[in-house]
Automatic annotation (TrEMBL):
Domain Radical SAM core: 8-239
Designated name of the protein: Radical SAM protein
Biological source species: Parablautia intestinalis
Keywords: Iron, Iron-sulfur, Metal-binding
GO molecular function: catalytic activity; iron-sulfur cluster binding; metal ion binding
Lineage: Bacteria, Bacillati, Bacillota, Clostridia, Lachnospirales
Domain of life of the organism encoding this protein: Bacteria
Amino acid sequence: MHFVEAKGILSPQNGMNLYRGCTHGCIYCDSRSKCYQMKHEFEDIEVKQNAPELLEKALRAKQKRSAKGAMIGTGAMCDPYMHCEQELLLTRKCLEIIDRYGFGLSILTKSDRILRDLDLLKSINQKAKCVVQMTLTTYDEQLCRILEPNVCTTKRRFEVLKIMRENGIPTIVWMSPLLPFINDTRENVEGILNYCVRAGVYGIICFGIGVTLREGDREYFYEALCKNFPGLREKYHQKYGYAYEIVSDNNRELMRLFYDVCRKHNIVCSVEELFAYLRQFPEDEAYEQMSLFFK
Ligand code: SF4
């Protein structure tokens, strides 16, 4: 890992990445794509060491304006709970600031390390709003260890989702990607959906049954196929060539199953609705009170 001084921390949409690169090793990782122009090895994590100072400055400035953009997002590009977070505490320090300034948080991870910060997540949720998002792709634990080798497996993530629910924190699951010929099966989707129902998730984001592959990500994925699934690389190449969107033959059947289960259990499954929910800050009155407090 290496340390840098970042120039800014919040994107125009209020997203932040405290790290660049990731050590979880998911074989299908889109963040490896060349288009993101990472100038270092993907596993050589770039640590934005001044992120807490930058965030505090940005939130202090926002307090004087309006409640718009009061939800801060993290985890879209790189997991905020990689191994290095254990000692660096960068995510934790930023959560402390979000909590102190009364902002909301939407955070996406695959790691049970998030439980370390449960106290802050609860506090943010009580003062404003906190949504914990977890990615679930693979019900079979053995297969999960191959596809997502350096992070806790789906069963443990399910337990994390349950703990969030028990603590009143709403959760959203990203059921994506589902890889053709690997985990695009009825059994897998049923297993994941069953976990979601039992964990009482608020919503599930699923764009369809498939995966996207582009330069940088594709090569890594194909190497992993060669290593773990003999013959599959050729099959992918024959069927999909260099396509960006790889859609499973089982897409229609499995999406029908997905919608049926969600409707039956009142789980929100509209992507637009869920993205709106992630951006939406609870009523501005509470926020205004918070702003007065910090004036
Ligand atoms: S957790 Fe996310 S960023 Fe990290 S390797 Fe997996 S897909 Fe990539």
